[in-house]
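Revision sheet: structure tokens.
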Amino acid sequence: MRISVIGCGRWGSFIAWYLEHIGHSVLLYGRQESARMQAFLHTRTNGLLTLPSSVRLCTQLTQALDWGELIVLSIGVQNVRSFLRTLPPNALSDKTLLLCMKGLEAATGKRITEIVEEECGPSTPTAIWVGPGHVQDFVRHRPNCMVIDSAQPELTARLIPRLSSDLIRFYYGRDLIGNEIGAAAKNVIGIAAGMLDGLDRTSLKGALMSRGTREVSRLIAAAGGRAQTAYGLGHLGDYEATVFSSFSHNRMFGEAFARQQPYQALAEGYPTAQAMVVLSQRYGVELPICQAVYEVLYQNKPLPSVLSNLFLRSLKEE
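Predicted:
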């Protein structure tokens, strides 16, 4: 396939590297003023990976959109709506869109596919790519399993054979709502895990994982998805890469926050914590872990007491 990857951050650039590696013709787009894109233009590397000369580099968005039959979008979730509003009319009319990021719109709690439908209409074939994996592992050829899901099962069935390899085995998603919410929510759980690390309470991660999965499963069901999806690769299956990994930005952000240290990298779980509270109120579902993270990050409540109350509160049925 001819594939345009929009977004030259660590995940977007890896996707370009991977798709070229398995035989596709790939173009990577980044803004002219982006320091990451300038690094690729001058050296073809970002310190994590080196793009082969066969990957085209582009700083003209219209050119990138015209070139690819499959458009892979890998940008910050909070920028998706404004990005789509900058596109020329009908820019995606004959394209397939693959969303490769995890999160929810902070102010509305909207899933990314909901944003796409609102801004582009329902006619653009759209799928999501979620699940565990870090660039640092993939470029060392350490394999993992991920998920592709869509509201159109035929699109999922078309993409998976063309994108799978020995490095990434894709599973067929059967619950778009559950996989989108679960993939976003695991970043909030990752921040909570980092906070536990920062307070030297790592032993509580077992309780965090079991309770976190349970509360997310309740939310998924209330939103119209399948509760069991929370126990799949999109959420629980991504915990190893988020709750424990030294490569996880969300976990590292939570640890830095607990230690009162600065942290500059993107942690998508930060705005997602706000979105999860929006969804909790919308569907009337208690999300004690997400609520606790929100209270610490947005309401300046003291972290040690919030976490103590979270894990030592009165016993109740799960």
